[in-house]
Amino acid sequence: MTLKISIDPAVGTAPYEQLRAQIAGQARSGRLPVGYKLPTVRGLAEDLGLAANTVAKAYRALEADGVIETRGRNGTFVAAAGDAAEREAAAAAQAYAERVRRLGLDKAMALAAVEDALRAAYAK
Description:
This protein is mainly alpha-helical. The protein has helices at about 15-30, 40-50, 50-65, 80-105, 105-120, and strands spanning about 35-40, 70, 75-80.
C-alpha cells in the first residue's frame, strides 16, 4: 500500500483541502489500512511541491476528524477512522435533533434543512 496524492492547482479547491480529502477517502475506503504510517509533514510537502504549513494544516484537520493520529516522535498513522467519524456524526445528529425540536420544527422541515446543507457541502 502506498499513498497516492495528486494536487491540481487548476481546480478551485485549496491544496490543503485536496490533500485532506484524498487522504480521508483512501483511509475510509481501506486503501490505506489502519496503522499505515504517513510521510512526515516536510517529506510529503517536498514530494508534492507544497509548503510544509499546507500539509500540516491538512494533517491537523484529519486528526481533528479522527482519520489520522500522531504518536509523538513515532510518526503519524491512519486511525480507525470509521468508528470515530461515525460516533462524531451520531453526536452531531443528536445535538441537531434536540435543537430543531426546541425550535419547534417538524421532522420534514428538519430533514429538508439537513438535505439542503448536505447538498451544499458536497457540491464544493
